[in-house]
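Bumping with the actual sequence this time:
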Amino acid sequence: MNTELICKNGQDIRELRNQLGLKQSTFWKRILVTQSGGSRYETGRTIPKQVLLLIHLAYSPLKESEALLKQLHAGKPVPMLREISERPRVRRSHGGRTPSVIQAGAC
């Protein structure tokens, strides 16, 4: 069974949170992320794959959560995570300079 994550980016997360009628603090607290950290993810900061997994497990229907757990338990790859890891990441620099692009896996 191929499981796709319910959220792929910050916009997806914000839409899910709004559909659920939750404030940022309530939504993010459930997966042990601060409200300020969650706000940054919702507005474009790179979201760790582990956070995307937790969102899926916490907020998708039970059958989808169970399917993902079975896939992870069996040691099977999660195709959506592979796709996310291939995207370039933006490193935010301090001092207002232009961000630099980092190829995935370069860190």
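The tokens above came from a reply further down the thread. DSSP finds six helices and two strands in the chain.
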